Amino acid sequence: MSKTHTLYQHGTLALLVPGLLDGTITMKELLEHGDTGIGTGEGLDGELIILDGVPYQVDHNGNVNVVEDDFTLPFANSHFAEYKRLTDVEELSQAELDKKIGAMTSANTFYSIKVHGTFTNIKTRAVKKSHKPYATLGKTAEDQSIFLRESVEGTLLSYYSPQIFDGAAVGGFHHHFLSDAHDFGGHVLGFGGATGNVEIQQFDTLEQHLPIHNKDFMNYDFSDWDILGEIHNAE
Fold first, then answer.
1. Measured between alpha carbons, how far is residue 197 from residues 88, 108, 169, 191, 209 in Å?
2. Is the CB of residue 10 less than 8 Å from the CB of residue 32?
3. Cβ contacts of residue 87 below 8 Å, gap of 6+?
4. How many whole angstroms separate alpha carbon 85 and alpha carbon 69?
5. Which residues form a coiled coil (predicted)?
6. How far apart, in whole angstroms, are the C-alpha atoms of residue 221 and residue 138?
7. Residue 141 is part of which domain span?
8. Which H/E stretch holds residue 122?
9. What are the angstrom distances between the C-alpha of 107 and each of 79, 98, 118, 159?
């Protein structure tokens, strides 16, 4: 089986909801499963985007840092890139882009989208790192910085998850962005227009990795939480 057909995921979005924010995989370990990806650091320490095997972190101050091998993450997606051209787009909003891509592919499998081009009125966020005892995802995510650019060239890296996996991941699209100049990026909250080329990589296998050596995770009772509601509020 080709490794390029496998999406690797460490942790779940559900475990972030009650505040299980320990870093449970190192960047070195994550990069063994892909050269492309997204994630967040321990304590929701910024927003990660991995391109061409280089892991970039957009921190709470808006700085873009290349992180070390020992940087840890509670949640991440990664895969080995083998994108194929899908289409070109011109001045499509985030909602329009999502709709166009959705009409060209299946909603029932995982895939990654990479859009390189010019983005106008793009809004991103990055969360400030928190420390133990961690608050909930909703509370921790309140301490976020919002970044805006009227026009910027860069790469939108996105993962699409089928709705039946909502909770393990974000059902639908999860977009991160990095500017070509490496001076802007983060978790995408929206954009007015995307102009550029769209590539797609479809997966037939989800490799879900859980932090079984983390006692807080192994002993936690999720039954009292509205996990999906909390995720949708935070994302």
1. 4, 23, 26, 16, 32
2. no
3. 100, 104, 197, 198
4. 31
5. none
6. 18
7. 3-234
8. strand 111-127
9. 19, 11, 26, 12
- Please tell me the predicted confidence (pLDDT) of residue 225: 86
182 or 227, greater pLDDT: 182
In the chain, how many domains are there?
1
Strand partners, 205: 6
* C-beta separation of 37 from 79 below 8 A: yes
d(CA 233, CA 156): 22
Is 70 exceeded by the pLDDT of residue 198? Answer: yes
| Distance between CA atoms of residues 164 and 108, nearest Å | 8
Mean of the per-residue pLDDT values for the chain? 96
**Residue 10 sits in a domain of what CATH number?**
3.30.1330.80
The pLDDT, as a whole number, for residue 93 is: 98
- Tens of pLDDT, residue by residue over 13-62, are 999 999 999 999 999 999 999 999 999 999 999 999 999 999 999 999 99
Which residue, among 174, 142, 165, 146, has the nearest Cα to 61 in the 3D structure?
Answer: 146
Which residues are bridge partners to 33 per DSSP? none
CA distance 81 to 155: 14
Residue 111 CA to its chain's centroid (Å): 13
pLDDT (average), residues 217-224: 93
CA dist 11 → 79, 111, 133, 201, 210 (Å): 15, 18, 19, 22, 5
- 60-96 per-position pLDDT tens digit: 999 999 999 999 999 999 999 999 999 999 999 999 9
